[in-house]
Specification:
Number of strands: 8
Order of helices and strands: EEEHHHHHHHHHEEEEEHHH
Helix content: 40-55%
Number of helices: 12
Number of domains: 3
Structural class: alpha+beta
Strand content: 5-15%
CATH class of the largest domain: Mainly Alpha
CATH topology of the largest domain: hpI Integrase, Chain A
CATH superfamily of the largest domain: Intergrase catalytic core
Distance between the termini: 73 Å
Shape: elongated
Strand order of the largest sheet: 1-2-3
Radius of gyration: 26 Å
Length: about 325
Amino acid sequence: MPVYKEEKTNTWRVIYRYTDWKGERKQTSKRGFATKREALAWEREQLNKVTADVDMTFASFIERYTEDMRTRLKENTWSTKEHIIRTKLTPYFGKLKLSSITPQQIITWQNELLNYRDAQGQAYSPVYLRTIHTQLSAIFNHAARYYKLRENPCQKAGTMGRKKAREMLFWTKEEYLQFAKAIQDKPMAYHAFQMLYWCGIREGELLALTPADFDFTRETVTISKSYQRLKGKDVITDPKTEKSNRTITLPDFLAAEMQEYIGSLYRIQSDDRIFPFTSSFLHHEMERGCKASGVKKIRIHCCEFAEMTRICS
């Protein structure tokens, strides 16, 4: 694989030839290297990537990992994974050889995250720390399973954080009714929280609802999709899990409320979203309602609402 010096620019150029996974011969090149050493280093890295050699850098392996995994995951799932890789993993491990990353380096990285504080002095939550560590471990597991990495150094280093928050706050029925009364001045917000509380659905499932999902004769709502706002685009996907596809029976009063609400939406079509906003609106309304009612703030998630509906109804 030749390396040339380009006299006009006084820089180095690499012409790189390789055989792809289909057995076809390919050629590419790269210009602008300040030194021959840099050009040769780039050439070696490309060879490591093509041959899936675990002596490639972590950053190069991320390119392979992306090719392998991106099309297999939902867009919102990949968006979360990509953000963690870009902001929490590659800045630390990117230049290191994949095969040379040690448990001690993992521990040092963990300690940096554990000691981090933002401008307000807030640390990362234990649940978020566990999520970050899980993403790194998944990458090493992929390398061990498919690219002959000898072992996953995360396993020896041990994990950090925890899977679930230690304390989960709930509303009693009385607290929810106080909150609902405080936001009744905004029908869209009121009906959104009515669906969350009495049906126990997730944010994304709520925001994907259309008139076609409701059967007011049977007083049911069908959950078959989820909404996210990703990179400035509205994205509708399947629900979180296969079991999340379900039909929920509405309480009589809620069926009547939702039928009236949908009927009040101007020129609503059967496939239009009945709550045409993003999750930030829900969080804003949560803040507003809690402040006005004096009710404690909880997470906007199906577990908190659904659990207390079962206990308190």
